[in-house]
Amino acid sequence: MFNTRHGVFKARRLAAYSYAAAPGTRASRGTKERASLSFLLVLMFFGVFGVIVLTEILMVDERGRGQGVLLPSHMDQRPPPSANLTAKDGDWQIVSGTRFKFLVFSAFFDKRDGNRMIRIVGATKTRLPERVFCRFWYPADHPQHDQAVTVPAKVKVIRENWNLKYSACFVLCLLRANQTVPAVVSVVARLRVRPHNMLAVRPLDRPDGAPPPDPASLAVCVKPLHFSYNRPVEMLEFLELNTMLGADHFTFYNHTIGPQVSCILHDYAARGRVTLLPWNLNMASQREIRTEGLFAALNDCLYRNMHRHALVAQIDLDEYIVPRHNLTLPDLLQWLGKRLNTRSAGSFSFQNAFFYLQWPDDPLVDKHGLDSRLLTARKTTRRTKLHPHKQRSKYIARPEFVVEAGNHFVWEFLPGHGAINVHPSAAILHHYRVCEFGGDDCVKSSHVVDRTAHRYKDRLSAQVSKRWALLRDDCKLGELFTPPPDGVPPPPPGSGAPPPQQPPPGGDAAAPDPDGPDGVEALQVLEPERPEQS
EC annotation (predicted)? Predict the structure, then answer.
């Protein structure tokens, strides 16, 4: 019985196979169609793969790893720049002929790490920036003065861009070993396009025979001033307190500032203390590019002060790096150098401490005196918990070791260099601002009283009062402090709501806090910490 059934089953299977394989049948046609479809899918896969590979070869990605098609450098007498175009340093200029916005601000000759290049600070599209070329111009006494050398450029988008449409960037123009450094450079999108920008090339190296900068020389960089910033008392406090902390020079970028602050900064500029550069960047802040393109400003300031100052601090107007055992920041770094190996340090990072403006003023400060107008004197309550390094921290850089500067830390150093995280027992960043999430819930966080900044209070009050008196008439400052007839002083700045056109100190009130709130209520204010004298 079993053999019979097995034979019948085998016969049926052979018949079915014969039927499926019979030429001209419907099953045979279906098999051929499936084979053709599989072949087409394979072709489509390789086609898409080929397009991706071709795109990577021909275009520059968002980190600038690609260099486009490498064309040989060539002499080009056509077309010359516009007759009314002159070389500028530190002013936004457009790159014409691109599909998206492309602007350039400054150019530096950089020969560190064995490479010779013109490094241009600019702003362009974050994803797949367009390919551009560098056109070099030479002075009238140079053999090539009537010609322009054009080379392909490499666009390197600065890492800190917040995924917005536009970003700060570097445009890198490589020079051959024997190629003369140009006096002026233009960035063009097409070889035969008349340039609409001319950047004076600034040398990064010291002149032959010139001594290196004083190891204690400290420059301060501040991100672009906007919202018609006009707080003269806070500006004078920032300038004078940082001078006491060791700063020799300040660099500001003027998007929009008010008349009193403008007058103060021009006075300091006339005395060689301040560099004030225009900042007319045609990109919508926070919608197209992050906060007025601040990362272009930070890197321009770093390269602008390289080999002119040994140290560069990147801070905001409501921030102060305050040492606990030393009076000045250069003294602090020298003190650290005796305890740590800092020879290869490219930057020194300082942890952030919030001094929220909603906390009460220090009861020891005279409410009827100038001290009540100074943030660092009247605001001494700070949040106990510090942010970790790289989260709201700020830093002092050794610029000759830095390639790319960020807001809270250095993104890229030259090989062999890195950051040193300074312990909070040596110094912290004092950050005076309102609650970062809006409202007043921040005052519930655990807090202590920290009067470290009071060691500068008396000298600072005297110096601010002196500068105010000298500038009062020219800058139309009015009286620095006028108690009302009944003897009750007016509320100090920051105790009420800020004017509508002024952002609260610290920038965007809704900016995310990477560390998050403590969520811990303080039962009492801790005893004041007494700073040790150096």
Answer: 2.4.1.-
